[in-house]
# Entry
Amino acid sequence: ICDTNEGRLKIAKAAYPSVKIYSDPSVLINSDEIRAVAIVTPVFSHYGLAKAALESGKHIFIEKPFTSNVREAEELIDLARKNGLIIMVDHTFLFSGSVKKIREVIDSGELGDLFFYDSVRVNLGLFQHDINVVWDLAPHDFSIMNFLIDKKPIAVSALGTVHFDQGPEDVAYIVAHFDNGFIAHFHCNWLSPVKIRRTLISGNKKMLVWDDLVPDEKLKIYDRGVDIKTTNGLHKLLVSYRSGDMYAPKVSTTEALQLEAGYFLECVEKGIDPFNNGEAGLKVVKMLEATDQSMKKGGAKIHL
# Structure
């Protein structure tokens, strides 16, 4: 374990007496005893640490977001490929029982053709000193959406605002545009009086609600929808609403990070390219960069 904070190292050593501790990351990264490293540090430091680890022949497990910009992500991916090394980006929610069940439901066709994806991820703080609310919260939702939705977004538009002098954007509304009429919306907020983690996915057959903060029944699937027919032109719409049963599918409660760590070890041992690899992290960084550009241009649509 390496940390520049001596206090944190003492806590780590007390919890795990047999572990070796370091205050200089280069010593750990260059150790011949180590085949892989986990980089759990502020975003601005990801690129330098990851590059050093890959150049030293180490596989890397790296916290989200992957890097601070697209150029850094692409360079690290090329370096890992050249050296035959694995990059795994810590998109932990992809290993949660809820997200895996949602993917299963979508793949089964139970929801039908998808209409929209809507996510709310808000709370009071924690303000970051090096990134805005988008880079802090949206990587979760971008990675989840990319995992669940087969089609990929073609553009992003966003509005964000700063409420404190010299501070980063603390509230943002983001829209991901697709070429088939599907739309995804994300609300990220550090100034909410309550913590909300809720996602809605609507299809022409059924609709799904995921509330990650409830202790049970995190997923609910509603047999609800709308049928619209026209007669003699659009001025005569025949609208019928369907409101059937709701059920809550069983969801695995195994700790997501435990599953992800096990998967990382398996990928290292067997030489497997993980699905949450550098390319998956790059897709998220591209969306984050586009979101920043759109906010700076007053909500302009930025093509990916």
User: Anything to note?
Assistant: The chain has a mean pLDDT of 94. Helices lie at 6-15, 25-29, 46-55, 70-83, 97-108, 133-148, 256-270, 278-296.
